[in-house]
Amino acid sequence: MREVLTNPTAGYYMNRDVFGQTGDFITSPEISQMFGELIAVWLINEWTKCGRPTPFQITELGPGRGTLMADILRVFSKFKIAGSDFSVSLVEVSPYLGQVQEKQLCPSQAQEATEVPQGSQHYKQSISLYGSQVRWYNHIPELPRTFTLFLAHEFFDALPIHKLVKVDQGWREVLIDLNREDLTLRYVISRDRTPACLYRLDNESREELEVSPQSLIITQAMAARIHQDGGIALVIDYGHEGDKTDTFRGFKNHKLHDPLVDPGTADLTADVDFAALKWAATHPRGFEDWKANLTYGTVDQKDFLTRVGINLRLEQLLASCRDEDVARDLKSAHKMLTDPMEMGSKFKFLALYPSVMEKILERYPPPGFV
Q1: Peptide bond into 55 cis (omega under 30)
Q2: Which residues lie in coiled coils (predicted)?
Q3: CATH code 3.40.50.12710 region(s) in the chain
Q4: pLDDT digit string (tens) for 132-171?
Q5: From CA 4, how far away is CA 12, in angstroms rounded?
Q6: For residue 349, is it left (φ>0), alpha (ψ between -120 and 50) or beta?
Q7: Are 20 and 49 contacting, i.e. CB atoms less than 8 angstroms apart?
Q8: Cis status of the peptide bond prior to 298, with omega within 30 of 0
Q9: What is the pTM of this model?
């Protein structure tokens, strides 16, 4: 899965724009500005609860085209949040998508090469439309040590998984094999236990499950940073609370696609195990002796967006709209984002806070989650 998605020369994400109507799938930020605007207001509200610490950064994991971050920065600018006290850090491994993000976020700088100082942790830098520094990184440990608003929208679903099944002899891993007769790929079950079978399976009642060690490592890295430097994380993805079994699939041209057919031409994905992420968020490596971070959620996307004001925002936009086609598109986007039969129930929201905010959150719970 990692090879198919991020191989430097032939990986699915590495050399093409896979988003939107002309790609293989569409995301919430691409549907309407309302999504990113409400996320921005939520982030500002929670940052304010923390005392508006500066300097601070907003970090997005896997920013796609940069559409969500563009909407967030526009809202931040309305609240006069820009300049030297605020920066943007993007964790992105695709050089192609990094260029797309730069054109989206830094239109006046995208044609000019900005030299990265020698010894820097980031591999690219620029200035956003609103004057904030934007830097690109490969991994979370490279990020500046400061208060951070982490954002991961449809990021974890693309991280590699291991598929495990319970047989008479115990747990075994489902592997990918080459059928030498016709040179097609096929699933096989390992003869013996593999390292993935060492996952926390002692009290597991399912006969089949998917585990993503990389997702746990990244979540632990976020949690450690939040504990050490202060911050908040918001994770948005489709997933479950540790009860689903077989969700590995491919998408091509907005339709389901066999993951083993023409690898590299379709998106590969699996539902996020939010129960596992919450475990990782409250058990960062190296901090076993401190009080655990706080997690809120998951809640459905329709509930989160409704509670933070998407209906009011739609009314405002419609009131100022003079084009019937635009008005119809706004209503359609609202329905797609909130209808339980569309994205409203498929996508979940999870928030992560440092334990020092427990008393504040008891008095002022995070909006969208209650």
Answers
A1: yes
A2: none
A3: 1-161+212-363
A4: 999 999 999 999 999 999 999 999 999 999 999 999 999 9
A5: 6
A6: beta
A7: no
A8: yes
A9: 0.93
